Amino acid sequence: MIWPRSFLRTFGNFVTYVLNKLNLPFMWFLFAGIVSAAAAAATAADYAIVSKRTIYPGQMIEDHDLKSIKLVRQPQIRYRFVNKREQIVGLQAKRTILAGRFIRIDSAEPAPLVKAGSLKRVRFTSGNLAISLMGVVLSDASHGETIRVRNPASGKIFFADVRADGSLTAGAL
């Protein structure tokens, strides 16, 4: 039998010895599937993504800001770090990401749909009644969040929900 190098590197000749002693050909197919899955996982985890430059909170993370490095040894807690560019490209940094360091998965979030301080139209509908007014957004928010909005004419503060397209709807004025 010829074993893949990654398998021999991981398990040595012990499994080869056991399979040869048992002389069971079906065991080869069982271990071949396990070996291919383990080899694929090992190659994916052999690389980590690090930043080329320092990225500050609020900045968007672009593909050209990142580089892939080969790991000399596996980190103790590798599941918390980014190992594929797709996990972080296009997101906004929540905290400072230092150049050349591992990037934690929770250090980025989707960009907010509405920004604090922006003037947005808020709609209220109840049956046939539809009211819309301009309001000042008081905090950054993404889809599905409830935020506070200030009416610039009266100064009253009310709550509105952020929709997927970035529009705001109020429950009750």
Please characterize this protein's 3D structure.
- It is a single chain.
- By secondary structure, the protein is of the alpha+beta class.
- It contains 3 helices and 9 strands, in the order αααβββββββββ.
- Strands 5-6-7-8-9 form a 5-stranded mixed beta barrel.
- It starts with a helix and ends with a strand.
Descriptors for this entry?
173 residues; 5-stranded mixed barrel; 9 strands
Helix % is 10-25%
Low-pLDDT windows of residues: none
Number of strands: 9
Physical arrangement of strands within the biggest beta sheet: 5-6-7-8-9
User: Largest sheet, if any?
Assistant: 5 strands, mixed, barrel
Structural class: alpha+beta
- Average pLDDT works out at 80
As a whole number of angstroms, the C-alpha radius of gyration is: 27 Å
User: What fraction of residues sit in β-strands?
Assistant: 25-35%
Sum up the overall morphology in one term: elongated
Write down the oligomeric state. Answer: single chain
Q: List the helices and strands in order.
A: HHHEEEEEEEEE
Output the number of helix runs.
3
Distance between the termini: 76 Å
